[in-house]
């Protein structure tokens, strides 16, 4: 059984729909994904390319001799990863889904690039945007609520 999920970029210019058979996701820690996202890893959901319906087309960046990545050239949101030869499926970034909360990580890829100190952070203090004055005051001054 599949279920439809939707997503897109931060500004809303690029949108997609995809049929998913599971909520499995994975972390990629390779240096290419670290550089492409600006993070210590990229969280992806692997899908078949023909399962994605682009409601509005992304821009594409040839990020290496073997891969290309969809993104929004207006807001910069990284949307995924695909091998240039079309093999191996297609990966959408977990954070680009409208509701990423249902996904669960099941594997680590590019493990040679793992930064171990970042894997288990459950004991670190947690600061919430709505109760962080420097953030909440700015949203209020803009006449808006803190995004959830």
Automatic annotation (TrEMBL):
Any keyword Zinc?
A: yes
Domain CENP-V/GFA, residue spans = 5-107
A Pfam family (short name) is GFA
Write the record's keywords in alphabetical order, separated by commas: Lyase, Metal-binding, Zinc
Q: Does the keyword Mitochondrion apply?
A: no
Q: Name one GO molecular function term.
A: carbon-sulfur lyase activity
Q: Which domain of life is it from?
A: Bacteria
Query: Family, per the entry?
Result: Belongs to the Gfa family.
Xref: PANTHER family: CENP-V_GFA DOMAIN-CONTAINING PROTEIN-RELATED, GFA DOMAIN-CONTAINING PROTEIN
What's the protein here called?
A: GFA family protein
